[in-house]
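Crash report, auto-generated. Payload:
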Amino acid sequence: MRKASYSVTRLQRHGYIFILPTLVFFSLFLIYPIISAFRLSLFEWNLLAPKEFVGLQNFIKMAGDSRLLNSYLRTIHFSAVSVAAINLLAFVFAVMLGSRLLRFKNFWQSLIFLPVVLSIVAVGVVWEFMYQGTGLIPIVLREIIGVSPDWLTDTRVAPYAVIITYVWRSVGYYMVIYIAGLLGVPESYYEAARIDGAGFWAQLFYITIPSLRNTFTLAIVSCVIFTFGQFSIQYVITQGGPSRSTEVLSLLIFREAFRLSKFGYSSGISVIFFLTLLIFSLIQLRLFKSGAVGA
Amino acid sequence: MRKVLLLVLVLGLLASMVWAGGQSGAEEMSRIVHFHWTETSYDKINNHAVELFKAKHPEVDVQILLLPDADRRDKIRVALAAKGEIDSFALSNGESAEFLSAGQMVPIEPEAFGKTSVQQVVDMWTPGAINTCGGVWDGQYYGIPFELSNYVAWVNVEFMKEAGLNPATDKPETWDEFVAVGKKLVKEEGGTRVRNGFMANSKAGIFSYLVLLAMMTQRGLDWGTEEGIVASMDQPREVARALKTYTDFVVKDEIWDPSLAEDDRSGFGTGKTGMFLTGGTWYWGVADNWEMPRENIQPFPYPRYPDGADVGGVGYGYCLYVSRLAKDPVLVFEWLDTMATQTNEFIKLGYHQPRVKNSDGSQALDPELARASIPYYDEVFKGELAKTSVWLSSTKGAQVEDAVWNAVSSVIYGGGSVDDAVAMLQNDIRAVYE
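Recovered output after restart:
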């Protein structure tokens, strides 16, 4: 008995040793920078001159900063539309690829997933060319419907140009998550439903969607987190323009720090950004713990 | 026995660490790391400078970090903040104030140039060149010039002929004429615009800022100093006039459709615009990257306002600096001196360095070679260089540039009015310097 207890303790100690490298890595490259950002948000600093302590001045300034408010709203708009479109399309594709009627499933699945493995910068550059006045998209649209919007220079259209590109690149990843979820739904449910005379829509709404509640939550929550922090697509295609219409929070953080040399203020925005995502993650945890989601 | 072996092992390990530490220290002492921007044709010349320097100092290893120009300033900033290995670097006159005010550079050491006074060093460049290139702070000299240039206007003369214009007599001299010519150079095919009359970079605000800076200076406003730009906000009518001239290119005159292409320099080289305003002598070298023959393009002086000042495009330059982190500032200045001795190699590419004499007393820039290498050197560039508008030297220059681009964007992209844009600019500029 004593020997067993001793072994467990030793095993636990070994466990700590095993996780130590990861713990050190995360502490150095994740936890320390987060704490530093909090600390830095109380200073004014351009990386060159000594730091100047300004207390909560950066946060007070943020309250009246229309550019920050604009970026916050742009980020919410970008995230809401993108997450809805990505998950809807990913789910539809997953259901279609699960259908017995569809042929060449592997081909279609690979085709939809392919953009996920492409470099996001390459994707941005190619789409930027396609959106330009003499690019593929305006030419095709003019051929078909006679007109095309100014995709990258109209403040009302540019946010959707970025969203379309982002959705195109991301939908394959979430499609795989939904396919994995669909594989977990027992075939017997559908057999029983068919015997009872249920059609496609009835099976979809009464079996497939309820069975995928956990998958939906996982996909939507992770999609919101990734999308909220999206930077590369906007940076490559529009650099936040035209007239700040695609300047999302992560891009604003970058510009405030590296273009305008306001590292303290930029850290303050990062703190707000972090808190927003933290609140969302806590809501997610609460949903899981309360059992409101899934079985 | 095991304890003795362990002791030997530990001692051996310690000894090797001490030796390795000494070695790395020795290596650090003999290495110079220089941060520079990359441009394929210039890189070869700069790398040749390393060979020239190593011929004099074989014990010194020089490493040039060639960075994309858009990232260069940030990489230098981070390397300095992290106290990394950075002995020297290049900054433009629009960038240097922030670094100089924070004491990040070392003043010029005459000894490195074989001179006894700073003035003797300064005299090796054309009068005022170090000032224009941003290498002076609080009356002290820090940088040595590596480029002195100025923006002029460029036009595709083949497109002019195609539009029934005579390149010899019809080049625009005023902004109104610029618009008139621009309208004739616009080309559409099947309802789709395939060529602009004029274009600037549609994403990077710095270029619009620099063109507008020249227009503001022509309107009599001082946008070259912090006090001047703040004071100019009390003259909203003049600010509005220049801003309207520029934004009308898009919204009223429609000689510039920003959706056609992003970059004006490549746009001009590939025939997507008939004119642009942000090229210096170096553009001859850059233009060779595209298929456009040199004889198809010509530079001409910036257009003026009939009732405005006789001022041309912005004058700018780059200086080379020694970092305060340099282990041996005299040696590093000697390296920079070597780097800046290839004036005649650069001028063959159209890249102008304002060096008159080398440290050994020999002639630096050969004026005849400059004339032969830079078409229209005397007719356009030289005269305009004497009339340049001054780029703002300010620790908050980037914020000013951002505010100006915001005002321009609100009109050309956001559909706002010029008056609202001026009001926005007034608020932003006053907030920057409050």
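Post-recovery validation: The radius of gyration of chain A is 24 Å.
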